[in-house]
Specification:
single chain, 359 residues, alpha+beta, five-stranded mixed sheet, two-stranded antiparallel ribbon, 13 helices, 7 strands
Length: 359
């Protein structure tokens, strides 16, 4: 199980050093300032001290505690019929997974901000001043999560939000509001970058229009301990939002105490790790194959039929005039539609179109 320990440890050291070059230390400082002693305050890759002293016994204990059947989920999304034959197949294939005790789920909510605080974050970015105010905010499944998200969209949506207007009118270089939801906690931030010194429901429904989007939602729901019905209820809740709900959520979270993060110019301190200096491992039986690998090789590969669009039967075509043709297909998933205009011209024939599209 841990035969790749040496090589993987070297990879982790390299990744840790690369993150230090990418200013990951600044993000670590932000999370430690916001979450204090909660698990979210610590970098996922581990601290320099812990990586210098890895113990196989700790890894083995972690594996045996969490990699057990009661703590796993199998996500199937697509044209699937749930019947006895499928259940039997799953039992034969996944029934070999080690059983065990369901690990206790420990929640790590964001600590209450009892008073206004301020921290400096060192960044090697000259000339620009930056500041962000961090507030405690609702997680995805709190009762007022959708109302608060809509309030954020009204503040900042990249085009016509209240904070966007500060950027559009050149009063600041950047102003935006964002919500950063984690599994057990969430924080909202209003970020401002001054000048140099001297549509929610639709988005949720679009995610469900394809298999990859629904699969991602299923995985997220399982990891958060939520049911699929709760995911569907979340979309329905968005439909029922009122103006009063949005105002109440904005007042509740943005009028509370907050943490101010101010940029300080400088080079953040880097912690680099030297490679452990292990001797290369010469693995044995490199050409050997396990019984399971041999079994996989014997499974025949089925030819997949290519499903192309039949313009004669799959799409409704209507001539709108001498120069316009409408191609129409009903959305079977929801009432969202997209509308695209295509002209028989291009940038090779008319180079100025390239500038026009970005105007």
């Amino acid at each position: 199980m841990f035969r790749g320990f040496q090589g993987e440890l070297e990879n982790v050291y390299e990744e840790k050093n690369r993150l230090a070059d990418d200013m990951a230390g600044a993000m670590d400082k932000i999370f430690s300032s916001v979450f204090k002693t909660q698990p979210y305050a610590y970098p996922i890759i581990g601290s320099t001290e812990s990586l210098k002293n890895p113990r196989l016994s700790d890894m083995e204990a972690f594996y045996k505690q969490y990699y057990v059947a009661p703590n796993m989920g199998l996500i199937l999304c697509g044209d699937i019929t749930v019947d006895e034959s499928l259940t039997t197949l799953l039992e034969q294939t996944f029934g070999r997974i080690q059983s065990g005790t369901q690990p206790e789920r420990r929640y790590s909510p964001m600590p209450d901000i009892t008073k206004n605080e301020q921290y400096e974050i060192t960044l090697p970015i000259p000339l620009l001043s930056m500041e962000a105010m961090v507030f405690k905010s609702p997680t995805d499944y709190d009762a007022d999560a959708e109302a608060f998200e809509l309030a954020n969209k009204l503040l900042s949506n990249g085009k016509a939000g209240l904070l966007d207007s500060l950027t559009n009118e050149h009063k600041v270089m950047l102003a935006l509001a964002m919500n950063l939801p984690l599994n057990d906690a969430a924080g909202a931030a209003i970020a401002i970058v001054p000048k140099l010194l001297g549509k929610m429901k639709t988005a949720e429904e679009r995610v469900m229009e394809n298999i990859s989007g629904r699969s991602a939602l299923l995985v997220k729901a399982f990891s958060n301990g939520r049911s699929w019905q709760e995911v569907l209820d979340k979309v329905e809740h968005i439909r029922q939002l009122t103006k009063e709900d949005v105002i109440a959520a904005a007042k509740k979270y943005y009028s509370a105490n907050h943490i101010t993060l101010a940029k300080k110019y400088g080079m953040p301190k880097k912690e680099t790790l030297q490679q452990p200096g292990y001797k290369p491992i010469s693995p044995k039986n490199m050409d050997a194959k396990s019984a399971f690998a041999l079994q996989l090789e014997q499974i025949p590969v089925k030819e997949s039929a290519i499903r192309t669009v039949d313009f004669a039967n799959d799409i409704t075509t209507r001539q709108l005039g001498d120069h316009a043709t409408l191609y129409y297909k009903e959305n079977p998933m929801n009432n969202i539609f997209s509308f695209t205009l295509r002209y028989k011209d291009g940038k090779l024939h008319t180079p100025k179109l390239d500038m026009l599209s970005a105007y």
